[in-house]
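Supplementary Note 2. Why include the ligand at all?

Several targets in our set were suspected to adopt different conformations when bound, so apo predictions alone were not considered sufficient. For every target with a known small-molecule partner we therefore ran a joint prediction. The input for 2'-monophosphoadenosine-5'-diphosphate is given below.
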Amino acid sequence: MNAVARSARYAVIGNPVAHSKSPQIHARFAAQTGQGLTYERLLAPLDGFAATVREFIRQGARGANVTVPFKLEAHAMADRLSERARAAGAVNTLKFEADGILGDNTDGVGMVTDIVRNAGFAMAGKRILLLGAGGAARGVLLPILSENPLEVVIANRTQAKALELVQRFDAHRGTFCGALRASEFSNLQGNFDIVINATSASLAAEVPPVPPAVLGPHALAYDMMYAGQPTVFMRFAAGHGAAVRDGLGMLVEQAAESFYIWRGVRPETAQIYAELRQLA
Ligand code: ATR
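The joint prediction is reproduced in token form.
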């Protein structure tokens, strides 16, 4: 039997998927930890996600990452969900087990690890502003609350969606002691220690219309998007004195958490982050 035949098979499933950096990241993790695995890109037809997963399982695959636009379908397809995947309402990591499919979501913990450990900004006891109330915001909320911040304010262009998110996470009150509330952009009061942009505004080169005073004197402004150049949100925040960071570290850390779920080994992330940063 050759090495590839012995290897456990994984993939990232999406549409489109050609741009995904996940194969590169997981190949690096596998080499670093000595795990025998292969990791490929799988383009699923827009109406064929479940069939693609079933066929991949039939071929003996052990797990998959799921990206746009299939994270909700992956959530629906899982036989079992982690608490954070249930809270997120979306799944980015599937583990194929003998008795069914486990669905997990590593996006939120990936972002929190990047902010707390890599950027060195603690969330415990801090004021956190989350901009946006779509899937990206929902996906990171439980891991943020689990850090026990003093206050989390969700601000969104469509106020009703921010309120809905606050109500949904009321069920997780026991997770943290702080306050969780919704606000309009223009009504934001005081300043925050960490401001997270979970809107898709950066894609349109727009900045959510927040008062610059939301950025505290030593604030971190974090954009979940990343690009070769700083996003408009990062330029806005840097212009008002904040430290800024994009979502490249989140990408690497969510991959590391998926790798840990699959293989039980936690890869080191600094080197691949530095390499991807140079290529970006
Ligand atoms: P995602 O999965 O990326 O979160 P989504 O669920 O479509 O995608 O949510 C997009 C988020 O970005 C929403 O919070 C959206 O605000 P609305 O709920 O009002 O639509 C926000 N958003 C998109 N473009 C924006 C812009 N130009 N300014 C401010 N917020 C924006």
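The two ends are 38 Å apart (CA to CA). The domain at 3-105 is CATH 3.40.50.10860 (Rossmann fold). Comparable summaries for the other entries are listed in the accompanying table.
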